[in-house]
Amino acid sequence: MSVHNGEKYLRPAMASLLQQTFADFELIVVDDGSQDGSPAILQEFAAQDSRVVVVSHENQGLTRSLNVGCQRARGEFIARMDADDVALPRRFEKQVQFLREHPEVVAVGSEVLLMDEQGWLIGPRHQPPGHAEIEARLLAGDGGAMTHPAVLVRTTALRQVGGYQEKFVTGQDLDLFLRLGEVGRLANLPEVLLHWRQHRQSVNATRWNNWAEAKRMALTDAAVRRRLQIDVAAIVAQEQHRPERRVEHLNWARRAVNAGYTRTAAKHLWLSLWSDGPKRGQGKIARALLKAWVRSLLPRQVSSR
Questions:
Q1: What three-state secondary structure class fits 228?
Q2: At 207, phi and psi to the nearest 5?
Q3: Averaged over 176-187, what is the pLDDT?
Q4: Of 283, 179, 271, 165, residue with least CA distance to 225
Q5: How far is CA 296 from CA 282, 283, 304, in A?
Q6: Are 18 and 87 in contact (CB under 8 A)?
Q7: How far apart are CA 254 and CA 50, in angstroms?
Q8: Which residues contact 120 (CB under 8 A, 6 or more apart)?
Q9: pTM given for the model
């Protein structure tokens, strides 16, 4: 785990890992030059649990910090998670068992549930289960074919491919998964094993503008290694800008209602209407829409917290 100014969500993230049913692991946390309360929180956890290993250095970025942590790792497998996510209790148990039963697989992810900044569940990401579909999506530039903070990798395979390439500011997961797929098979477990937090301060959000270049580099490199013809320019041209807040909230509301999280849906419908500031008459419209929305959905209410 790499942490840079992550105090807001760090405690629940750390607690979720230390409460795993599979307990034989070390938790290597690289403090990447945090200027907030993260170092104190990490030292507190380290004092309470001998499995926590804290490595501190000046701010060097996510990719370098991931390599520092992986180089310190001594285990058979290396799990990844970010400092704002929450692992479900049986994540390690299920993923370790799967890799031990499937020696041809070098990395396994899982289904994940998206959650918003306050931890309200939005819905599943719908991860592809098998190697062929994962590979097809990766070669189409979709790094989300495996959710990076939900992955468990064989240490030997990670070192065989050389770890993370530090030329990637973002998209380092797409590049890594493409290279891992060249030395073994990839898989996602169908069970939800991670709650993946969505917020505007995340690396994915703040580095959005770097995605097109990251895809171009990762796919160009893969085409050379694999001797494939990939229309990289066409794939990169499809890269979209991050949606404005109003659209993002509306997308989350739709995903949440499809997954049965109707309280979350109502919340983000409201936020979609007000995210750019109230406009004349908007409050009355929003209240009417919300009443109709919630009234139609309450019989199927599913708790989201």
A1: coil
A2: -105, 20
A3: 98
A4: 179
A5: 21, 20, 17
A6: no
A7: 43
A8: 261, 263, 264, 267, 304, 305
A9: 0.88
